[in-house]
């Protein structure tokens, strides 16, 4: 079993549901890494999986979980299934993309961190938040009622024109 499979097996039950005990332990540790990244304005994290897990004071499996989460913003995806303790990795951090992904994934414990104010102004954070929320919001076209004018421009009622079928 590779490291990613080991992490995945702990994070999720056999029927695919989340393991709440695991996540309650993992999330504060993940949050500490993001606090460090934001406080220090770290744009690149490099080292072996083992070195970085020790640096951030977490198990290798937990660190694989962190990599899995941040992998979505990587220009070149890290092949999680191929990682070993000695794998050299480089994590590039684009703060705007990271913030938007956190909003997209509804990770409010991460996108609400006060450390974001070290990176962006309050106004920038609001703009990024609203921009990401609106990009994922489905806007339904107004329904054409039977007695409304037909949208084809004929001047007839919809029920007597394009809606007659």
Q: Structural class, please?
A: mainly alpha
The Rg value, from CA coordinates, equals: 23 Å
Shape category: elongated
Strand ordering within the main sheet = 1-2
Descriptive notes:
The structure is a single chain. The relative contact order is 0.11. The longest helix is centred in the first third of the chain and has 21 residues, at 20-40. Helix 1 (3-11) packs across helix 4, helix 3 (49-55) crosses helix 4 (60-70) and helix 5 (95-104) packs across helix 7 (122-135). By secondary structure, the protein is mainly alpha-helical. The chain has one domain (3-120). It has helices at residues 3-11, 20-40, 49-55, 60-70, 95-104, 108-111, 122-135; strands spanning 44-48, 88-92.
Please give the structural blueprint.
Layout: H1 3-11, H2 20-40, E1 44-48, H3 49-55, H4 60-70, E2 88-92, H5 95-104, H6 108-111, H7 122-135
Antiparallel strand pairs: 1-2
Helix pairs in contact: 1-4, 3-4, 5-7
């Amino acid at each position: 079993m590779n490291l990613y499979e080991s992490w995945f097996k702990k994070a999720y039950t056999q029927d695919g549901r989340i393991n709440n005990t695991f996540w309650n332990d993992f999330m504060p540790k993940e949050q500490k890494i993001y606090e460090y990244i934001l406080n220090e304005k770290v744009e690149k994290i490099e080292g072996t999986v083992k070195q970085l897990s020790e640096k951030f004071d977490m198990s290798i499996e937990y660190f694989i979980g962190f990599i899995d989460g941040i992998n979505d913003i990587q220009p070149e995806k890290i092949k999680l299934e191929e990682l070993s303790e000695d794998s050299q990795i480089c994590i590039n951090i684009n703060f705007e993309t990271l913030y938007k992904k956190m909003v997209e994934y509804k990770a409010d414990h991460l996108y609400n961190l006060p450390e974001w104010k070290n990176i962006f102004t309050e106004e920038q954070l609001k703009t990024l938040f609203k921009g990401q929320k609106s990009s994922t919001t489905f806007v339904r076209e107004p329904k054409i009622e039977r007695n409304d004018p037909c949208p084809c421009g004929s001047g007839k009622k919809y029920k007597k024109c394009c809606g007659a079928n």
